[in-house]
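Hey team,

Sharing the RRM domain-containing protein run so nobody has to redo it. Sequence (143 residues) first:
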Amino acid sequence: MAVKSLEERTIEVLAVPESVDEELLSLYFENKRSGGGPLISVKKRGDCATLVFEKAEAAAQVLSKGHHVLHNVTMSVRKAASKDQNRLLLRGINPSTITEMIELYVENMIGLNVTDYTLYPSPGRDIIVIQLSQPFTKGLFTA
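Structure output:
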């Protein structure tokens, strides 16, 4: 049996209580109560956590429950965002910011030329997708 892709086995948990550490999350999501199964990794950052299950079926079962309660707090779960190495997302943009200012920011922060990317603002102009002409790599940043 072929191992399912990492993306199919990865979920995000939102609204994780501060008092819940990675070990407790692991115990809960490996337990039948959650519908989960054995985990490969658990990474908690603030009130969010990323879980990678051994089997995609366990991740799907956890997702099918929608909400999970731990320490009397309701946590929600969702599929982890896919990683597209040709796109970056800028959030929290002031809608009145002119495009030229955003271009200068992108060029200075990432070290790109104006021909290396295209900006796609959301209808509200508070989110902008940066479409890169070549895949993003860690060495791409100059700052």
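Residues 6-79 form a domain with the Alpha-Beta Plaits fold (CATH 3.30.70.330).

Ping me if you want the raw files.
A.
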